[in-house]
Amino acid sequence: MNHDLVCFPFSDLGSETHWQREGELLHRFNHLPPEAQHERPELLKALFAQADEVIISPPLAIARGHLITLSRKVFINYNAQIAAAPGAPITIGHHTIIAPNVQIQTGTHPVDPTERQKWAYCAKGITIGNNVWIGAGAIICGGVTIGDHSVIGAGSVVTRDVPSCVLVGGNPAHVIRELTPPDESTLYALNP
C-alpha cells in the first residue's frame, strides 16, 4: 500500500481541546481501578476510530486515536505507543497480537536541516494486516504495510513493507524466512 508523506507546520499541531479530551480519556483508561474494568471497552471506543472486541493492557500511550482503527480481536499488551497523524492513519487488522513495549509511529522529520525547521513533523500512514504478531519492543515506522499472518521479531525496527506470511527481524528488519500460509477456512475456528 502506498502511504504518501504529509507535513505539518508548527502552526498546525491540532487543537488544545482535542489533545485535552484525548488526554483525559487516556488517563481514565490507564488508571481504572479493578472494580471499574467494565468501563474499559467504552473508553476504547471513545479513544479510537474503531475498537470492537479489542483487549488492551494499560498503560497505553496514543496520539490522535480517532485516526487509529483496531479491527476485531486485536490484543495489545502493556506500554504500547501508537501515534497517527492527519492524512497518515493507522489500521490494525483482525486477530493481530502486539507484545509489550511496541511502538507504531507514523511521524518522522526531514533529514535536511533547513526543511526540518519548516515543518513541525511529517508522517506516513501504517497498515498492519490480519493475524500479525508483533514481538516485544518492535518499532513500526511510518509508511509501512505489514502483510497478513506475518511475524515481526522482538526488537525489530520495521522501516519498509513486509510481505504476507514471513518472519522478519533485525534493525532494519529483513525477511528471515517464509511461513506456511494458513488454511483460511479453518484458521479462526478456535477464536471466531
Identify low-pLDDT runs: none
Approximately how much beta-strand content do the residues carry? 25-35%
- CA(first)-CA(last) distance: 27 Å
Structural category is alpha/beta
Placed side by side, the strands forming the largest sheet appear as 3-6-9-14-17-19-20
Total number of beta strands: 20
Shape by Cα distribution: globular
Layout: helices, strands, pairs:
Elements lengths: L5 E3 L7 H15 L9 H8 L2 E2 L3 E2 L3 E4 L4 E3 L4 E2 L3 E4 L6 E3 L4 E2 L4 E3 L1 E2 L4 H6 L2 E3 L2 E3 L4 E2 L4 E3 L3 E2 L4 E2 L4 E2 L7 E5 L2 E6 L14
Parallel strand pairs: 2-5, 3-6, 4-7, 5-8, 6-9, 7-10, 8-13, 9-14, 10-15, 13-16, 14-17, 15-18, 17-19
Antiparallel strand pairs: 1-12, 11-12, 19-20
Helix pairs in contact: 1-2
In brief:
Helix content is 15%, strand content 30%.
Structure description:
This protein is α/β, with parallel strands linked by helices. The chain contains three helices and 20 strands. It has helices spanning 16-30, 40-47, 113-118, and strands spanning 6-8, 50-51, 55-56, 60-63, 68-70, 75-76, 80-83, 90-92, 97-98, 103-105, 107-108, 121-123, 126-128, 133-134, 139-141, 145-146, 151-152, 157-158, 166-170, 173-178. The chain has a seven-stranded mixed beta sheet with strand order 3-6-9-14-17-19-20, with no helix packed on it. The chain has a five-stranded parallel beta sheet with strand order 2-5-8-13-16, covered by helices on one side. β19 and β20 (173-178) form a beta hairpin. α1 packs antiparallel against α2. The longest helix is centred in the first third of the chain and has 15 residues, at 16-30. The radius of gyration is 17 Å and the shape is globular. 31% of the residues are buried.
